[in-house]
Amino acid sequence: MTEKPLVAIVMGSQSDWETMKNASAVLEKLGVAHECRIVSAHRTPDRLVNFAKGAHLEGFKVVIAGAGGAAHLPGMVASMTHLPVLGVPVESKALKGMDSLLSIVQMPGGIPVGTLAIGVPGATNAGILAASILATSDEALAERLIAFRTAQTDSVAEKPV
């Protein structure tokens, strides 16, 4: 994609890519320019601050943030930007992603993070939701999103085989 990226997909570590690549795949399929970065709340705090405070200046309109375990990344990004932040809890080994989910969803009033499902379904839906947000002001994207959803509906058999 040569267009300026409208969606930033950030994750806390390289191991999160296995989940977060699903958000990227959906955005690719819908023709939404995006960029993926590793931004750890714990290991690269300066990178986190620089990204979060400057995301709107880079032209991003939506941020998808995936993190596992303590999962502070989505909330920390949301605390430093006015952009919508969609949080994806990455499944953890210790608590199967429940720790990630609770860390992301339990934001204090005034700092919202739109939290999706744990793991691959959450990353997939985050990509669709980001496209839906952008489609409110992009008719061509809205048409692609409608076609995507229609194809999804049409792919469901009426009877089991």
Report what the structure shows.
- It comes from Novosphingobium jiangmenense.
- This is N5-carboxyaminoimidazole ribonucleotide mutase.
- It catalyses: 5-carboxyamino-1-(5-phospho-D-ribosyl)imidazole + H(+) = 5-amino-1-(5-phospho-D-ribosyl)imidazole-4-carboxylate.
- Keywords: Isomerase, Lyase, Purine biosynthesis.
- The chain is of the alpha/beta class and 161 residues long.
- Helices cover 44% and strands 16% of the residues.
- The protein has helices at 17-30, 45-54, 73-79, 98-105, 120-135, 139-154; strands at residues 7-11, 34-38, 62-68, 85-90, 114-115.
- Strands 2-1-3-4-5 form a 5-stranded parallel beta sheet, sandwiched between helices.
- Strand 1 (7-11), helix 1 and strand 2 (34-38) form a beta-alpha-beta unit.
- Helix 1 packs parallel to helix 5 and helix 5 packs across helix 6.
- The model has no long low-confidence stretch (mean pLDDT 96).
